[in-house]
Amino acid sequence: MLSQIIFLAILILLNAYFAATELAFISLNDAKVERDAKDRKQKGKTNLKNVKISK
Asked: Collapsing DSSP states into helix, strand and coil, what is residue 5?
Protein backbone atom coordinates (compact mmCIF):
# COMPACT_ATOMS: atom_id res chain seq x y z
CA MET A 1 0.00 0.00 0.00
CA LEU A 2 2.70 2.48 1.00
CA SER A 3 4.86 1.52 -1.98
CA GLN A 4 1.94 2.20 -4.33
CA ILE A 5 1.46 5.67 -2.85
CA ILE A 6 5.17 6.45 -3.21
CA PHE A 7 5.14 5.16 -6.79
CA LEU A 8 2.11 7.31 -7.59
CA ALA A 9 3.80 10.38 -6.07
CA ILE A 10 6.90 9.79 -8.20
CA LEU A 11 4.75 9.51 -11.33
CA ILE A 12 2.94 12.75 -10.47
CA LEU A 13 6.26 14.55 -9.99
CA LEU A 14 7.58 13.23 -13.31
CA ASN A 15 4.40 14.35 -15.03
CA ALA A 16 4.76 17.83 -13.53
CA TYR A 17 8.37 18.04 -14.73
CA PHE A 18 7.54 17.05 -18.30
CA ALA A 19 4.50 19.34 -18.43
CA ALA A 20 6.62 22.28 -17.26
CA THR A 21 9.30 21.47 -19.85
CA GLU A 22 6.70 21.35 -22.62
CA LEU A 23 5.21 24.65 -21.50
CA ALA A 24 8.65 26.27 -21.48
CA PHE A 25 9.34 25.19 -25.06
CA ILE A 26 5.92 26.35 -26.23
CA SER A 27 6.31 29.76 -24.64
CA LEU A 28 9.79 30.40 -26.05
CA ASN A 29 9.97 33.64 -27.95
CA ASP A 30 11.67 32.88 -31.28
CA ALA A 31 13.00 36.43 -31.64
CA LYS A 32 14.64 36.33 -28.22
CA VAL A 33 16.22 32.92 -28.91
CA GLU A 34 17.66 34.16 -32.21
CA ARG A 35 18.95 37.35 -30.58
CA ASP A 36 20.66 35.34 -27.83
CA ALA A 37 22.23 33.07 -30.46
CA LYS A 38 23.52 36.09 -32.38
CA ASP A 39 24.98 37.54 -29.18
CA ARG A 40 27.01 34.32 -28.97
CA LYS A 41 25.45 33.19 -25.76
CA GLN A 42 25.91 29.44 -25.46
CA LYS A 43 22.47 29.01 -23.95
CA GLY A 44 20.91 30.86 -26.87
CA LYS A 45 22.69 28.69 -29.43
CA THR A 46 21.60 25.52 -27.66
CA ASN A 47 18.02 26.74 -27.41
CA LEU A 48 18.00 27.67 -31.09
CA LYS A 49 19.12 24.16 -32.04
CA ASN A 50 16.46 22.61 -29.79
CA VAL A 51 13.71 24.81 -31.20
CA LYS A 52 14.69 23.96 -34.79
CA ILE A 53 14.71 20.24 -33.97
CA SER A 54 11.31 20.33 -32.30
CA LYS A 55 9.57 22.14 -35.20
From this structure: helix
Task: Please name which of 45, 53, 40, 10 lies closest in space to residue 2, comparing C-alpha atoms.
Answer: 10
Number of H-type helices and E-type strands within the chain: 3, 0
Contact 17, 28 (CB under 8 A): no
* pLDDT, tens only, 15-32: 999 999 988 878 777 667
Closest CA to 43 of 33, 55, 51: 33
Burial class (CB in 10 A: 0-12, 13-18, 19+), 33: buried
Whole-model pTM over 0.85: no
Say if CB 43 and CB 36 are below 8 A apart. yes
